[in-house]
Amino acid sequence: MQSALASHCAAPPTGVLVMDVLHRRIDDALDTALGADDGAFLQRFCGLVAILEEAFATEEFWMEEIDYPAIRQHREQHARVLSGMHHVYCSLMAGDTGTARKVVACLLPDFLKLHGDTMDTALSMHLQVTGMPQFEAPLSLSARQFLARSEFRQ
After folding, report:
1. What is the pLDDT of residues 87-102, one digit of tens each?
2. Under 8 Å CB-to-CB from 17, ≥6 apart: which residues?
3. CATH code of the domain covering residue 28
4. In angstroms, rounded to a whole number, what is the distance separating the alpha carbons of residues 35 and 14?
5. Contacts 24+ apart (CB under 8 A), 71-78
């Protein structure tokens, strides 16, 4: 399976530090899931879904706070990918590790690259133009801990 993960990770930062932290956490969870053996894959997959849910909820909070004009379209993309991940979870619970691995290795990275290049780029530009301070947007405790131990630290 060829993965788009490398190209997603190589994408330039958005310019909004907290958004870049969210994206990096997703990249790391994706890497962790990809590297997991079959015995650990379910747990890593669930961790990836939890990080996606948290990141999407955070972005949606920001969009609500600034009355973002494209919130409906952005939120729809989040909902579609989470729906797909939850559907794949059911297959994984039924023992179909192959399909879940294919989604994590190929489909999700392709989605994240497209979403980042389009929806998240537009959102980050809007956040920068509106002058929203980068650390005013709430991050979860786990995201703040990730920021504190990562290369994003200033």
Report:
1. 999 999 999 999 999 9
2. 134, 135, 152
3. 1.20.120.50
4. 27
5. 73/119, 74/119, 74/123, 77/115, 77/119
With respect to residue 59, please indicate whether it lies within any of the assigned structural domains.
yes
Confidence grade of residue 18 (pLDDT, cut at 50, 70, 90): confident
The DSSP letter of residue 117 is: I
Amino acid in position 113: K
* pTM score, whole prediction: 0.82
Look-up of token digits 């909902």: 79
Contact call for residues 97 and 67 (beta carbons, < 8 A): no
Task: Say how far apart CA 114 and CA 64 lie, in whole Å.
Answer: 22
Domain that holds residue 40: 15-149
Do 121 and 32 form a contact (C-beta atoms < 8 A)? no
Report the share of the chain in percent with pLDDT over 70: 77
Distance in angstroms (rounded) separating the CA atoms of residues 85 and 71: 21
